[in-house]
Inverse folding.
């Protein structure tokens, strides 16, 4: 499905009425992001109030990522997760932790009474990336260190020459290979602009380096 802020707003209004007795202010905005690291996020600024003894939340935003290809129900569960955070901070409640006793009470209430599957955290590494976010090719730098460790990086092409020079100046580097790849293994790598990367085991390193188009 194509996720939009209008859809999130419609779901929010419905869930607010059904599960929170309309207690949540509609003075909240929504963003559809392409975050690779978290499916949902609630953000706000706390501002001191002369009328209230506690700070009031302003500039409240609920963000939901469309980076992964997941079902509507999963997206709704994510929205409800962020709405619980919104409820807690809007009512000036102090929880034992970001996902403490108050959060878990509301999470369990919605899961048990209404059949939702809201969780504390999600294992996004197992999710399929949305076809809209698949990229055709990646510029990869494969580095073998003198101690035998292997590093892979997905590089921003604009910074290839600089990174190549920095890598060649590094005494710990044994060899460097550049190649382009269409392997979706690299889709969750951030494009680097400096000489850095992720350590991988030797087997993975060799597999990703074979059958590729070498770069000069």
């Amino acid at each position: 499905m194509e996720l939009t802020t209008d859809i999130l707003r419609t779901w929010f209004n419905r869930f607010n009425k059904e599960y929170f007795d309309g207690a949540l202010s509609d003075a909240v905005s929504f963003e559809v992001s392409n975050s690779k690291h978290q499916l949902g996020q609630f953000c706000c600024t706390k501002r001191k109030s002369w009328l209230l003894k506690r700070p009031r939340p302003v500039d409240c935003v609920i963000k939901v990522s469309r980076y992964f290809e997941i079902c509507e129900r999963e997206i709704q569960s994510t929205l409800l997760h962020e709405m619980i955070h919104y409820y807690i901070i809007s009512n000036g409640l102090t929880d034992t932790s970001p996902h403490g006793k108050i959060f878990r009470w509301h999470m369990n209430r919605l899961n048990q009474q209404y059949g939702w599957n809201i969780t504390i955290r999600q294992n996004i590494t197992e999710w399929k990336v949305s076809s809209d976010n698949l990229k055709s090719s990646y510029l990869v730098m494969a580095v073998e260190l003198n101690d035998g460790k292997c590093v892979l990086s997905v590089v921003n092409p604009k910074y290839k020459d600089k990174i190549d020079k920095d890598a060649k100046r590094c005494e710990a580097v044994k060899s460097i290979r550049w190649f382009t790849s269409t392997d979706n293994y690299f889709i969750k790598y951030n494009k680097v602009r400096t000489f850095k990367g992720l350590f991988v085991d030797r087997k993975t390193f060799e597999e990703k380096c074979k059958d590729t188009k070498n770069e000069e």
